[in-house]
Amino acid sequence: MTGSVTILGSGSALPTFQNSPSGQMLHLNDKSFLIDCGEGVQLTMRQMGLKTARLYSVFISHLHGDHCFGLIGLISTLSMMKRTQPLHVYAHKDLQKLLHPLIDYHCGDMMSFEVVFHPISPRKQAVIFEDRNVTVETIPLKHKVPTCGFLFTEKGQRRYAYISDTMYSPKIIPQIEGVDLLYHESTYTDEHEARCKATTHSTARQAAMIARDAQVKNLLIGHFSARVDDHRQFLHEALEVFPDTRLAEERKTFEF
Ligand SMILES: [Zn+2]
Ligand SMILES: [Zn+2]
């Protein structure tokens, strides 16, 4: 039994030469789960040779473009590749309204598989997926638009928490207490604290405070702002608070 997460994008809204917008592939047992799907995610998946055959579902944390603009491209590609198994998409209900006309327009009669849409309420903590081995629950977050993180629990084993865009929110601590791996957004460094607050994001230090107070085993930080060139500054500030921190570098896989 192993768990790992591959980082496909760890930038924020403005893509840079260093980073693409958010996307991660979580592998638990024999299943793969895509978490967020910013622009460029499918390209990185292909470049890394990640197979989509075991991709069963996609979880979208919120509807800012840097977390969902890649989904229509991915769906179109999967259809061109003649996928037949359904793809389950878990997201705020508005995504269905936005996505279905695009699927109809671009894929239309050629669509080779069904996209099964599961509307979620990001403001409520709820179990949204469960099978024999894994449960997924939402973690309500504080951001400009309805946003949630996701807690993946392998029954009796590992736990992975994905904390998407949010301002510092200690409310989430009881839900993520002691997880094996926590990904927490870390958009800014201390220097940009005022901007961080105004845009409802977290600093690296705040992400580390959440990790420390929730006593998680390891912390990954990402969603780096284009305003900070040297990512070592994020790491440096987080490490002052929580020693088991790593940068969510793209194309790297982290086991837990
Ligand atoms: Zn974002
Ligand atoms: Zn956002």
Keywords, separated by commas or semicolons:
single chain, 256 residues, alpha/beta, Metallo-beta-lactamase, Chain A, seven-stranded mixed sheet, 30% strand, binds zinc ion
Protein model, in words:
The chain is α/β, with parallel strands linked by helices and 256 residues long. The protein has a single domain, classed as Metallo-beta-lactamase, Chain A (4-Layer Sandwich), CATH 3.60.15.10. The protein is built from eight helices and 14 strands. The strands form two sheets. It has a seven-stranded mixed sheet with strand order 6-5-4-3-2-1-14. A seven-stranded mixed sheet has the order 7-8-9-10-11-12-13, with helices on one face. A hairpin with a 7-residue loop joins strand 8 and strand 9. The longest helix has 13 residues. The relative contact order is 0.16. The structure holds zinc ion (2 copies). One zinc ion binds next to loops.
Topology:
Blueprint: E1 3-9, E2 23-28, E3 31-37, H1 41-47, E4 55-59, H2 65-68, H3 71-80, E5 87-92, H4 94-106, E6 115-120, E7 127-130, E8 134-140, E9 148-154, E10 159-163, H5 173-176, E11 181-185, H6 193-198, H7 204-213, E12 218-222, H8 232-239, E13 245-247, E14 253-255
Parallel strand pairs: 3-4, 4-5, 5-6, 10-11, 11-12, 12-13
Antiparallel strand pairs: 1-2, 1-14, 2-3, 7-8, 8-9, 9-10
Helix pairs in contact: 7-8
The structure holds zinc ion (2 copies).
The site of one zinc ion has 8 residues, from α2.
